[in-house]
Write a structure and sequence with these properties.
alpha+beta, Nuclear Transport Factor 2, Chain: A, 2 helices, 6 strands, 37% strand
Length: 130
């Protein structure tokens, strides 16, 4: 089933979706908490594109650099920079037979990026009231 952003996250996330964060040990269950994390990530990981930067360069904003699709699974590798620090990670997404996301796992490297994202995500979630 083809899903677009037309219906927003509600059209893509299963009500019982599980979100696995690189920062939080326990799985986060449910559409509301998953949307909160994904919205906060969007506000945190966008980075600030440098003037004249080329998509995919470290100096640029958030860019997906690779995708691997296999049945109900997708692995999307991304890069960005935050406060001049390189961030590299993957989104590991699992969908059900209806194309709804049932699991969304994020992994980030290197360690300095995890620490930076942790601090900024915490601030973003607090600002959003989550």
């Amino acid at each position: 089933m083809d899903r677009t952003l037309e219906g927003g996250l509600d059209s893509m996330l299963h009500p019982d979706v599980v979100f696995l964060s690189p920062i939080v040990f326990t799985p986060q269950r449910g559409i509301d908490i998953t949307k909160a994390y994904l919205n906060a990530a969007g506000g945190t990981l966008n980075g600030d594109p440098a003037p004249g930067s080329v998509p995919g360069e470290i100096e640029g904003g958030f860019t997906y650099t690779k995708q691997i699709l296999d049945g109900h699974h997708a692995v999307l590798e991304f890069e960005t920079s935050i406060d001049g620090k390189y961030v590299n990670g993957i989104d590991l997404i699992t969908c059900d037979d209806d194309g709804m996301i049932v699991e969304f796992k994020v992994m980030i490297r290197p360690l300095q990026a995890i620490n930076l994202v942790h601090a900024q995500m915490g601030a973003m979630l607090e600002k959003m009231g989550s």
